[in-house]
Amino acid sequence: MFESLSNKLEKAFKTLKGQGKITEINVAETVKEIRKALIDADVNYKIAKTFTDTVKEKALGQNVLTAVSPGQLLTKIVNDELTLLLGGQAVELNTKGSPAIILMAGLQGSGKTTHSAKLANYIKKKGKTVMMAACDVYRPAAIQQLHVLGEQIGVPVYSEEGNNNPVSIATNAVKEAQQKGASVLIIDTAGRLSVDAEMMEEIGNIKKAIQPQEILFVVDSMTGQDAVNTAKAFNDVLDFTGVILTKLDGDTRGGAALSIKTVVEKPIKFVGMGEKMEALDPFHPDRMAQRILGMGDIVSLVERAQQVFDEEEAARVQKKLLKDQFTFEDFYTQIQQIKKMGNLKDLMGMIPGVGKAVKDLDISDDAFKGIEAIINSMTPKERNNPDIISGSRRKRIADGSGTDIQQVNQLLKQFEEMRKMMKSFGKMQGASMRGFPGMPKMPGMR
Amino acid sequence: MGIFSIFSKEKKEKLNEGLEKTKSSLFSKISKALVGKTTVDDDFLDELEEILVTSDVGIHTTLKIIERLQQRVAIDKYIGHSELNALLKQEIEQLLNEHQNNHLATFENLQGKKPYVMMVVGVNGVGKTTTIGKLANQFKQAGKSVVLGAGDTFRAAAVAQLKIWGERNGVHVVEHGMNTDPAAVSYDAVKYANEHNADVVIIDTAGRLHNRVDLMNELSKIKRVMSKVIPDAPHEVLLVLDASTGQNAFEQAKQFTAATEVNALALTKLDGTAKGGVVIGIADQFKVPVKYIGVGEGIDDLQLFDRKEFVDSLFN
User: Fold this and answer.
1) Hey, are the CB atoms on B271 and A195 less than 8 Å from each other?
2) CA distances from B37 to B50, B51, B67 (A)
3) Which of A120, A194, B139, B216 is 20 to 30 A away from residue A274, measured at CA?
4) Could you write out the DSSP letters of every residue in B133-184?
5) CB distance from A196 to chain B under 8 Å?
6) Could A224 and B59 be called an inter-chain contact, meaning their C-beta atoms sit closer than 8 Å?
7) Three-state DSSP state, B200
8) How far apart are CA A31 and CA A12, in angstroms?
9) How far is A5 from chain B (nearest CA, A)?
């Protein structure tokens, strides 16, 4: 994500490399490049103009710092300004109230239903009881879609067959949530165009009827210049409390994100980064700005890992690692957990320096398929005691998994090496944790 | 003929209505920019650039239009309000004409293919299933028998959504349920259409982001299996684009074309955006013609894209 923009900015900064100080002349070209890149990234034309003017002013104002090169200085200025533009500090979701009501609103196809469920899953993981209500009475099978997703994540869905009035469904859902003692209620609504007066009035009425704590505007990160108008129109009617930016796992440069906050002055609270229910991350303006500049986002990656990894399971694996009892059974479980974290390419893209390298690489979730097949073709006994896997067993496993003996051998060898490495790593980690109490917790390494 | 002219008048009104937002923002701005000016100066050209860029025309196409306009102005000298509008209209019309193939498609003419096999692709949430529902309606109205294939087996309740559209239109939907192999459903749908002598078969596919190589490969496979039933199928690979999408639309068109040889575009939700301008940009940058546009939420609100009518609606 934002890769194309950071590529362009990198190119823009290149013209500054090796120059002693920032002057009106040498900064002009770079600033022009930045502006073009921003506009090409769907950042609103006016905002891009204001942004680059500010960058230029600041660059000229504080020139000639001997310690840093103009390129570095400008990178910092762009980074700071970008962070500012993206919304300053991270803003938490307000889940106070009984129940706390979250109303979802947005255009058609922005991803409201999917993100209602992702958000429900996210809140549920934080230990709250969640309920969803299906108020999209227009799109065929929208209600059914929410039911299916609700089942997947184990969150009850309130809907009313035959009731075509979303205001009354929403109102009844609140009562139901109160009765059932749910602490958070998420209301999915129909997609609507900001120019459709009737539908905008309807969502205004839903808001009036249920008085939600949070109104989240769900917007497709691929949206063009119109993003500011749409956001403004929705904000005029709803005075929403935050934004969810969806489909950021695409290669969109996501300029819409940069514009919306500036125009409506509402924080972006979450970003959707994939099709899995776990693929929802809190929005961090500072990290996002760094990401735009190609610095990766290792913090989000770690956080997502922490969320997915079952702590008890991690402790169990940790113990096993230290005692050198790590088995294929454990390995298989680990693979499943990694897969739950989302698309591998997205994950790798978050690691600094890797993003660009994997841009054109073909990494699919099938990467584990061969390994899984081999492990699945082992007997439980073999999985728990890899040492007993003899030549004939290897042949059987290869046949069963549709691979060949070489591949099985390779996996066994890698597994053995990994076991050794993890054993020493585990010990080392334990020691260093005592040595450096300030170190952050890592999943599975506690 | 009487019926047809009435129909096309209604159609035109709908188009005008649908584009109202584009028109009022794009061209009222141009008029405003022109007030009190007797010549085309740099200020005006700057303003024109802003107007076109903020309409999602795209920076490349914008610069192209401006360059051409500058040349024209240099040749034709004095420019007043209405003359400039006319010039701009000509330039945009010409841009639209350059890469579009010239014959106007209709819902009646299926190029002698029976069944005419269509495959509908696009990123998530652009309106593929809805477009298929509207297409089925149009083909039915043109007296064609239609079969739908529920190839989106991934998104929750996508099959149910398509089946509702099938019921509304009274057309058969071939489906294997959720989480099944989309290529197998597509194969069966084409086979069913072939055996039942249907005129048109339209295959729905799951939305996918174009940077997911695995999913794009899956799409290529779906396309391949259809040709096992009918060698030259699919006859139409339709990429659905959301009109409110910004510059990423170009990347989508590029990647989907690479995976499936897209040969037609549908632009949806044109009624909701001020940025019909993306049509101009796409027509300029791609050899693939815009074939359909969605201008409203009603089942009849899908139209064949008529360049001349489109430009007329922008300026009238």
Assistant:
1) yes
2) 18, 17, 19
3) A194
4) HHHHHHHHHTT--EEEEEE--SSTTHHHHHHHHHHHHT-EEE---TTS-HHH
5) yes
6) no
7) strand
8) 8
9) 12
CB contact under 8 A, A365 and B214: yes
Helical segments of A239-350, H only: 255-264, 285-292, 298-308, 311-322, 328-340, 344-349
Residues in chain B: 316
What per-residue confidence (pLDDT) applies to A61? 62
A106 forms beta bridges with: A218
Q: Rounded CA gap, B150 and B136, in Å? A: 13
What is the secondary structure of A84-142 as a DSSP string?
Answer: HHHTSS-------STTEEEEEEESTTS-HHHHHHHHHHHHHHTT--EEEEEE--SSTTH
Cβ proximity of A4 and A253 under 8 Å: yes
Q: Beta partners for A217?
A: A105, A243
HSE value, Cβ hemisphere, 13 Å, CA-based, for A310 = 11
Question: At A219, which helix (H) or strand (E)?
Answer: strand A214-220
CB B244 within 8 A of CB B275: yes
- For A108, half-sphere exposure in the C-beta direction (CA atoms, 13 angstrom radius) is 28
Interface of B with A in 20-59 (CB under 8 A): 21, 50, 53-56, 59
Q: Could you tell me the two tokens for A88?
A: 């300053």
Q: How far apart are CA B140 and CA B199, in angstroms?
A: 10
pTM metric for this prediction: 0.75
Residue A86 neighbours by CB distance under 10 Å: 22
Min distance B113 CA to chain A CA atoms (Å): 31
Band of residue A433 on the pLDDT scale cut at 50, 70, 90: very low
The residue ranking higher by pLDDT, B107 or B188, is B188
Whether A279 contacts A304, CB under 8 Å? no
Instruction: For residues A313-342, give the mean pLDDT.
Output: 74
pLDDT over 50 at A438, yes or no: no
Q: Is A280 helix (H, G, I), strand (E, B) or coil?
A: strand
Contact list in A for residue B278 (CB cut-off 8 A) is: 224
Residues B210, A360: contact at Cβ < 8 Å? no
> pLDDT tens digits for B274-305?
556 777 888 788 778 889 999 888 888 998 88
Domains, chain A, with CATH or none: 3-85 (1.20.120.140), 100-283 (3.40.50.300), 303-432 (1.10.260.30)
Answer yes or no: do A40 and B59 touch at CB < 8 A: yes
* B127 touching A (Cβ < 8 Å): yes
